């Protein structure tokens, strides 16, 4: 038998090294290399065979029913849309998002809605005291007798609260603040996060109680902690929004019980956070008369079609290097569209400052907005406004062609529902033909 030797391995990717380093040489993550005992390659391991007891034996899938794991609505329509209809008993849900975006406010509202239905809810926070949570609950109207609060950072104590309260829903804010005295390391470390999440998920599965975990994010926006955390949970939701605006979006990155392409829309107000079932008019301007440099498009947020107005401004540049300023759109795609306009459509832009922005702070990342951006720029150059009832969507190629985009029928239907009678899309042909179709 080979003698076990001391080694170090990355908790994220499994990379091994003979000495400790602060940064993993494979995945380049900091603080993930930990010491562990590793046996030689010739070490033989055996696993004892355990016969499952009564009620735990394997059964044919046709004899099983899914009645016990049906979705239960939370009372918040947009949250139910993202989760696939509500929470599933025994499910582990991970909420992530930037600090201050409104994760705790949304979950406290969800806890209050569940308490209104007569269910016992446990809200365990390691970041705020119970008094601070009550102040927020008073402001948002989330005071109920069956909503229990606990301010704890010890894992064993939180598990004890779950046993004592016997809740129908558990919310832990956040998983990086809890620690187990059985594991070495500071709270928030990879080993602590792994143990805390595994213990809470195990309790949720055994009791059939859904648990919602709040997770911190890193500088690049990913969930902090080991990647294993996202594999352990059943649903991963990301709450995003710009602090300059009150609009918030909830997206699913993983969902074992529903679709992953749904998006929930919320608005942050003085009395908490409220859902926006129909955000169609949030990203359109309210100008009484048509203004040059504006064009409406239809973007897809998950399965939802959202009309968005793109605005462009073109002015004579006073510097040798004209400015290209964008807000809410991809700068590289705007630069490509400007090159196509100058080369294929004869627009003179090399000595012009170009500013492109969206209304309402929404971000357009899909290429379907190319045609609307191009028409808005041409409208700004010619100082000729587009008709109020015109909407455009389509991808522009380097050859000047307008390509079709996904969900074109749904986009056109949503545009017509909102009163846009003229649709400019891939059916227009080339960029020059689309410009003439738009009346420019």
TrEMBL record:
Keywords noted in UniProt: ATP-binding, DNA damage, DNA repair, DNA-binding, Hydrolase, Metal-binding, Nucleotide-binding, Stress response, Zinc, Zinc-finger
Keyword Cell inner membrane: no
Cytoplasm in keyword set: no
Domain of life: Bacteria
Pfam name, any one: Zn_ribbon_LapB
Domains as described in the record: The middle region has homology to RecA with ATPase motifs including the RadA KNRFG motif, while the C-terminus is homologous to Lon protease.
Record's protein name: DNA repair protein RadA
Protein's organism: Leucobacter edaphi
């Amino acid at each position: 038998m080979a003698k076990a030797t001391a080694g170090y391995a990355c908790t994220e990717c499994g990379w091994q090294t003979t000495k400790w380093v602060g940064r993993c040489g494979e995945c380049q993550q900091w603080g993930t290399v930990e010491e562990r005992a590793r046996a030689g390659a010739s070490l033989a391991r055996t696993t004892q065979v355990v016969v499952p007891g009564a009620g735990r034996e394997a059964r044919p899938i046709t004899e099983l029913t899914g009645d016990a794991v049906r979705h239960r609505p939370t009372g918040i329509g947009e949250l139910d849309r993202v989760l696939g209809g509500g929470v599933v008993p025994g499910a582990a849900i991970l909420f992530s998002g930037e600090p201050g975006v409104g994760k705790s406010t949304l979950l406290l509202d969800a806890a209050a809605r569940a308490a209104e239905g007569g269910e016992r809810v446990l809200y365990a926070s390691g970041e705020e005291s119970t008094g601070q949570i009550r102040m927020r609950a008073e402001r948002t109207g989330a005071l109920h007798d069956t909503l229990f609060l606990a301010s704890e950072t010890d894992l064993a104590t939180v598990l004890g609260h779950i046993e004592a309260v016997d809740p129908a829903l558990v919310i832990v804010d956040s998983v990086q603040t809890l620690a187990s005295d059985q594991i070495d390391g500071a709270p928030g470390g990879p080993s602590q996060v792994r143990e805390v999440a595994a213990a809470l998920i195990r309790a949720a599965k055994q009791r059939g109680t859904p648990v919602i975990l709040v997770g911190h994010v890193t500088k690049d926006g990913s969930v902090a902690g080991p990647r294993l955390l996202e594999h352990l949970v059943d649903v991963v939701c990301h709450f995003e929004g710009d602090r300059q605006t009150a609009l918030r979006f909830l997206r699913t990155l993983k969902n074992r019980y529903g679709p992953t392409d749904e998006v929930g829309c919320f608005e942050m107000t003085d009395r908490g956070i409220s859902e926006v079932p129909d955000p169609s008019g949030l990203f359109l301007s309210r100008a009484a008369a048509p203004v040059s440099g504006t064009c409406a498009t239809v973007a897809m947020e998950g399965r939802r079609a959202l009309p968005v107005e793109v605005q462009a401004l073109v002015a004579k540049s006073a510097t040798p290097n004209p400015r290209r300023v964008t807000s809410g759109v991809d700068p590289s795609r705007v630069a490509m569209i400007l090159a196509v306009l100058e080369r294929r459509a004869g627009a003179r832009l090399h000595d012009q400052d170009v500013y492109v922005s969206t209304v309402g702070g929404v971000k357009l990342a899909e290429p379907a907005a190319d045609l609307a951006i191009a028409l808005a720029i041409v409208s700004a150059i010619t100082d000729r406004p587009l008709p109020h009832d015109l909407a455009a969507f389509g991808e522009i190629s380097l050859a000047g062609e307008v390509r079709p985009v996904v969900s074109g029928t749904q986009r056109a239907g949503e545009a017509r529902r909102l009163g846009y009678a003229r649709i400019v899309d891939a059916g227009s042909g080339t960029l020059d033909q689309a410009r003439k179709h738009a009346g420019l």
